[in-house]
Amino acid sequence: MKRQIEKKTLLIVDDVELFIQLQISHLGHQRYDIHTARSGSEGLEMVRSLKPDIVLMDMFMPDINGDQVCRLLKEDPDTWSIPVVLVSSGGRGWSRAASLSSKCDGLIFKPVRRDLLLSVVENLLGTNLRARDRVQVSIPGSALLEGTVYPVTLHSLSSSGAFIETEEKMIRGDLLELTFALPDRKQKIRIRAAAVIWCGSLREDGPPGTGIHFLTIDEETRKHLNIFVHENMSAREGTHESDAAKSSM
User: In this structure, what are the phi and psi dihedrals at residue 217, rounded to the nearest 5 degrees?
Assistant: First the structure.
């Protein structure tokens, strides 16, 4: 008999039933033990009593806004370690500033993309543990975020994601358009949608940056990346990453 995998407990807090049901539909009824709350105060009490594995918290609610609830949870020794992802329908500038000050673990904007939601949730829960072939590189590129282009350097690359060095402060849940060219190839690769799924460094002494997961990538581009990675793996060591923080790259 196959061992049944224990479901992770997930709490969705939103005062609009439609948005709750959309997120449940995206996540899948069978994958998680999903609980719901309809206000910030109710969500706060449920987190304290239920101790869920992760919380999806609406930013704007009638009583207490999601960033305020998150701040209270992060200040509480009993709940500070529970991942909280804010879900916002507000302005991006204000929402990003509020999410950073609340010390949340991610920010997603409505309408919520299913692939983005799953990438962020699975990464935070460590349920996407898959060793992926990758190669260490140093490739210059650019990332388009909310209308602004930022220079980046790719330091780790697979056919499904990358680690990029950047001085720009990014948040788990950011959607980027990534452009770069593989060595000795003139044609540039453009990843139309790449999700930021973790922030930090690959090594203790490494440069700061973000791990990104390719959401929108055509099969031809994925094929080229696979070929490049496999051609360069034989000459390099330590190209497998399988821990939870980097497994979706």
Answer: -150, 130
Q: What separation in angstroms does the CA of 238 have from each of 61, 106, 211, 233?
A: 47, 29, 17, 9
Single residue among 125, 157, 173 that ends a domain in this structure = 125
The residues with which 86 forms a beta bridge, in sequence order, are 57, 107
- At residue 154, the 3 state secondary structure works out as strand
Shared domain for 136 and 231, answered yes or no, is yes
From the number of C-beta atoms within 10 Å of its C-beta (0-12, 13-18, 19+), residue 110 rates as middle
Preceding amide of 111 cis, omega within 30: yes
Domain CATH number, residue 119: 3.40.50.2300
Kindly report, residue by residue over 100-131, the tens digit of the pLDDT: 999 999 999 999 999 999 999 999 998 765 55
- The answer to pTM > 0.85 is yes
Determine what percent of the chain falls in helix, strand and coil, rounding each to the nearest 5: 30, 35, 40
Answer yes or no: do 166 and 204 share one domain: yes
What does residue 134 show for φ and ψ, rounded to 5 degrees? -150, 165
Question: Confidence band (pLDDT; 50, 70, 90) for 2?
Answer: very low
What's the total number of domains in the chain?
Answer: 2
Boundary (domain end) residue, out of 125, 155, 179: 125
Edge-to-edge strand ranges of the sheet holding 54-58: 32-37, 8-13, 54-58, 84-88, 106-109
Q: Are residues 136 and 101 part of one domain?
A: no
- Domain region containing 204: 132-238
